[in-house]
Design brief:
seven-stranded mixed sheet; 354 residues; 18 strands; 10 helices; eight-stranded mixed sheet
Length: 354
């Protein structure tokens, strides 16, 4: 029987940030991840917002800065949006994940790749995991359909986008290669967008749909043939996955079992951005939990109840977009100054942690 102060289920951004923060403060932490190595089978687009880049330093060779947004209506009319002080970073996501994994391991975290979280239960003042691990705390960072949440009767995500993305080599981009090309189309990308964005050595082409609809990336590429020249482009990778957009799950904690990242639903319902919230609150939880274990004081779940984002406004805006923005209306308003102002706020000024 192995014992740790904290066991983390899931080795994504949230779990690794939490593990590193705990280990840096001398807490014994074991992370269980079913994948055999970091960065395998990624589901995220890996786009990092400015606020995240400001908070978490990443190696320059793993990122590419994108400053402009070109927003297309269903008719393919477009408007260019710019902000003098904002940017996005596209990433070499598998190697970025390996970077965060290495950082957590260097700090002293025990990372068990190829080891799934299978089940857990409370036994006295400890939590037994997979029959052979004991811990004082269990952190569920095991994705949008969390087994930890299921085992401990915590809240679960019920509203999702389903995203699909392909990476292309040799795809020329119009208007330079420093723009995030976004496509509004409620038939191909109901409730969200399609995108083409310059990545690290590739172009990332994808879209997402509000479930139960499913994205058809090949149909999207056919639609984009009038904008991009795919004739010499080659697909070198594909990925896809669920994006929870229903907001914070309730409850997200019970006793010493706490949900984090996608498991907790702390993904923006409007932009579907979750990397910054995963890293930020993973770090906050690790720091708070370390203090609680060494010095006492406020229980970390109590702190998270106060600071986890609820996304009430963003949920309202998502519902309005899904139900009140048919394609004919998007075509009409794409060049309207008020619409452009609102779109600029979504891309450049919406605070990603609230």
């Amino acid at each position: 029987m192995e014992q740790a102060d904290v066991i983390i289920a899931g080795g994504g951004f949230a779990g690794l940030a939490c593990a590193k923060a705990l280990a840096e403060r001398g807490i014994g932490v074991t992370l269980l991840e079913r994948k055999k190595a970091p960065g395998i089978g990624m589901h995220t687009t890996g786009i990092i917002v400015k606020e995240c880049a400001d908070e978490f330093a990443v190696p320059d060779h793993l990122v590419r800065r994108v400053t402009d947004v070109r927003l297309y209506a269903p008719s393919l009319r477009y408007v260019d949006l710019k902000s003098p002080d904002y940017f996005f970073l596209t990433t070499d996501t598998p190697n970025l994940m390996k970077f965060f994994s290495d950082e957590a391991e260097k700090a002293g975290a025990r990372l068990l790749y190829g080891t799934s979280y299978e089940h857990g239960r409370v036994e006295g003042d400890h939590i037994r995991v997979n029959n052979n691990y004991f811990s004082r705390f269990l952190i569920g960072a095991d994705g949008p359909r969390s087994r930890v949440a299921d085992d401990f009767k915590l809240g679960q995500n019920t509203q999702f986008l389903l995203g699909a993305e392909a990476e292309y080599k040799n795809l020329p981009l119009p208007g330079g290669e420093n723009a995030f090309y976004c496509f509004l189309d409620q038939k191909l990308a109901h409730g969200y967008i399609g995108w083409v964005i310059p990545g690290v050595g590739v172009a990332q082409v994808g879209l997402a749909q509000r479930m139960p609809r499913r994205p058809d990336i090949d149909e999207f590429v056919k639609r984009m043939n009038t904008v991009f020249d795919f004739s010499q482009a080659e697909v070198v990778a594909r990925r896809g996955g669920l994006i929870p957009v229903g907001g914070l799950v309730k409850p997200f904690a019970d006793g010493n079992v706490i949900l984090l990242g996608d498991s907790a639903g702390i993904v923006s319902p409007l932009t579907a951005g979750g990397i910054h919230t995963a890293l930020h609150y993973g770090k906050v939880l690790g720091e708070t939990l370390a203090t609680y274990l060494t010095k006492g004081g406020e229980h970390p779940a109590s702190l998270l109840h106060r600071i986890y984002p609820r996304f009430y406004l963003k949920q309202g805006l998502r519902k309005a977009y899904e139900h009140l923005a048919p394609n004919w209306l998007l075509d009409q308003v794409i060049t309207n100054p008020l619409f452009n102002y609102a779109a600029s706020n979504v891309f450049f000024k919406v605070k990603h942690l609230k």
